[in-house]
Write a structure and sequence with these properties.
The protein is mainly beta and 197 residues long. It has one domain (52-195): Immunoglobulin-like, CATH 2.60.40.3500. It has one helix spanning 2-21, and strands at 55-57, 66-75, 78-86, 92-98, 116-123, 144-145, 153-162, 165-172, 179-184, 189-195. The strands form two sheets. A six-stranded antiparallel sheet has the order 1-4-5-8-7-6, with no helix packed on it. The protein has a four-stranded antiparallel sheet with strand order 2-3-10-9, with no helix packed on it. Strand 6 and strand 7 (153-162) form a beta hairpin.
């Protein structure tokens, strides 16, 4: 009887330990579903951090995101870049300022205009596999452009896909400024906001 009780208590303790180890810091914060581009007002519920340090969040779901569109807009107090995907997953990201923009894989310097460079590595991305591949499996938008509005974001460079990741480089006019990154659903999107005057 004691052996059975001790075994049951051991199983209960192991279950509690495993449950406690599931750290919320390793999961993607839930984002409110949206079917349109976020409104210009600062109503996201995601605050700008006080500093300019690295931000890292894991992707969620399948690695099936295909890049479809990259848009830039200037709003009151911030510039917004929206990276839109097709797929069922939710993008993850690593975002930080870098001294020199370099392409994943090759390490080649990426030509980006600006005084500071914000690098965003987007996870959960793919090029659909299949033979033959069709034009729908690839991103056909601009890979390098200067936003027409001319806010804090001076230049945008959109990288290809390398081992499940895609890169985005933002050339910032002036010194490093705070930024925030978050994901939205329906369709899957990654939003990068950069503080501006």
């Amino acid at each position: 009887m004691r052996a059975r009780t001790a075994h049951a208590l051991g199983l209960l303790a192991a279950t509690c330990l495993l449950t406690a180890c599931g750290s919320p810091a390793t999961t993607l914060p839930s984002a409110a579903p949206s079917t349109t581009t976020p409104a210009p007002s600062d109503d996201t519920g995601v605050p700008f951090p006080s500093g300019t340090g690295r931000q890292l969040v894991k992707h969620r779901g399948a690695w099936d995101l295909v890049l479809r569109d990259v848009r830039v807009g200037t709003h009151d107090g911030f510039d917004r870049v929206v990276v839109e995907f097709e797929g069922s997953g939710t993008p993850g990201w690593g975002a930080e300022y870098v001294t020199t923009p370099r392409a994943d894989g090759s390490g080649k310097v990426v030509d980006v205009s600006g005084d500071s460079y914000l690098a965003v590595s987007i996870s959960g991305v793919t090029i659909r596999q299949g033979y033959p591949r069709t034009p729908a499996d690839f991103f056909h938008g601009a890979r390098h452009f200067a936003p027409a509005d001319g806010g804090a974001i001076e230049d945008v460079s959109v990288g290809g896909v390398f081992e499940g990741y895609s890169q985005l480089f933002l050339g910032i006019d002036g010194e490093k400024v705070p930024f925030r990154v978050f994901a939205l659903a329906n369709p899957p999107r990654l939003v990068v906001d950069v503080e501006s005057d």
